[in-house]
Amino acid sequence: MYATLAVSLWLTLAMAVPAGGFLVRIFVIQHDCGHGAFFRSPAANDWIGRLCSLATLTPYANWRRQHAVHHANWNNLDRRESGSDIYSACLTTREYHRLKPLRRTLWRLLRHPAIALIILPPLVFLLVYRLPFDTPAHWRRERLSVHATNLALATVIAGLGFIVGFGAMAVVQLSIMVVAAIIGVWLFSVQHRFEAARWFTRDEWSAVDASLRGTSYLRLPPILQWFTGNIGFHHVHHLNPRIPNYHLAACHAASHYLQQVPTLTLRDGLKAATYWLWDEAQERMVRLRDCQPRRDPLI
Question: What is the pTM of this model?
Answer without folding.
Answer: 0.91
